[in-house]
């Protein structure tokens, strides 16, 4: 298959977002199977959650924590 060159540096943000949406719409029509390791990883994480070894955060709280940890100094 021939590689397609797309002039991303010359595209506007709106054009890039349109392209991304078109690609996602096309990809989402296909059946994509997750790799086998996804199932085992999810099972491990669910077990850790049920055993009280980890917790999860509300998305807004997580974003705030990320911003605090990644802020430029």
UniProtKB/TrEMBL annotation:
Name of protein: Acyl-protein synthetase
Domain of life: Bacteria
A Pfam family annotated for this UniProt entry: Unstab_antitox
Source organism (scientific name): Candidatus Methylumidiphilus alinenensis
Alphabetical list of InterPro entries matching this protein: CHP02574_addiction_mod (IPR013406)
């Amino acid at each position: 298959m021939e590689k397609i060159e797309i002039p991303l540096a010359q595209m506007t943000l709106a054009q890039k977002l349109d392209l991304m949406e078109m690609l996602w719409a096309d990809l989402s029509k296909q059946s994509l199977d997750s790799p086998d390791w996804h199932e085992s990883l999810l099972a491990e994480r669910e077990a850790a959650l049920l055993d009280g070894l980890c917790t999860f955060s509300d998305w807004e709280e997580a974003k705030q924590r990320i911003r605090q940890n990644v802020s430029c100094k």
